[in-house]
Amino acid sequence: MDTSTIRTLMEINTLQSLGTVQTQTEQNSTSPSIFNTILEEMLGTTSITDSLSSASATLLGNLNNTESLRYVGRNGVFEPSSLNAIISAALEKSPVSTTDTSISNGSYSNIISQAAEKYNLPDKLISAVIKQESNFNSNVVSHAGAQGLMQLMPGTAKFLGVKDSFDPVQNIMGGAKYLRQMLNQFDGDTELALAAYNAGPGNVKKHDGIPPFKETQQYVKNVLGYFNA
User: Fold this and answer.
1) DSSP string, 83-113
2) pLDDT for residue 181 is more than 70
3) Mean pLDDT, to the nearest integer, of 38-62?
């Protein structure tokens, strides 16, 4: 680990520690800070390199949640404007990639294949929809409330018989079923079916084609791009 990374970790630890002196008596059971862990290891027999690597992995594993770096006690503290810069710098040093441009369906391939066979859909079309909807994140929730891999709205999920939208099997089966319904409703037209999946069949019928919504038009373009790649 280079000195820049160590410095970044120490800066983040300092931010985490702001204001905690006033609230120590309220914390009955807390985990030792990264700084204290490293210090204890320095005084012991464990390699400082091992300690820093372990601490770095623990911290970077939580960096996707920016709020985890902010003090949440009842006593207000000053929050430096450089906080986001520090977080970004640490993420850049993380070995974990935060972007994925592939359409690999990974561990969901068997479920996708079963859904494709059951609802007479191409495996790759289901994968393309999942890629666009959630990027294969089974726990994602949109600002509108859509849930899981194929981003099912609670009402739609209930209609499809999906009881747990965060269960990959139920979500993919439900999403594939809905996609098949859209294809049947629009005479097998993939573009219109995808537009209906995104904006609802009512909007497709109302506009007699892909609705003039920028989001829906881009959605159809992206999914077909993944599908035809």
Assistant:
1) HHHHHHHHHHH-SS-S-------GGGHHHHH
2) yes
3) 46
What does the mean pLDDT of the chain come to?
76
Could you tell me if 224 and 203 are in contact, meaning their C-beta atoms sit under 8 angstroms apart? no
Give whole-number Cα distances, 163 to 32, 126, 146, 169, in Å.
40, 20, 14, 11
Dihedral angle computed from the Cα positions of residues 194, 199, 201 and 202, in that order, rounded to the nearest 10 degrees:
-160
Longest Cα–Cα distance in the chain: 73
- Segment 57-72, tens digit of pLDDT: 444 444 444 444 444 4
End-to-end Cα, the chain, rounded Å: 38
27, 43, 110, 177, 202 from 174: Cα distances, Å: 45, 56, 15, 5, 20
State the Cα–Cα distance between residues 168 and 174, nearest whole angstrom.
10
Q: 0.70 cut: is pTM over it?
A: no
User: How far is residue 100 from each of residues 52, 61, 83, 89, 137, measured CA to CA in Å?
Assistant: 28, 17, 26, 20, 11
Q: Locate 119 and state its tokens.
A: 């609802």
Q: Write the pLDDT tens digit of every residue in 92-134.
A: 544 433 334 456 666 899 999 999 999 999 999 999 999 999 9
Q: Cβ contacts of residue 29 below 8 Å, gap of 6+?
A: none
Q: Active-site residues: which are they?
A: 133
| Mean pLDDT across 198-222 | 97
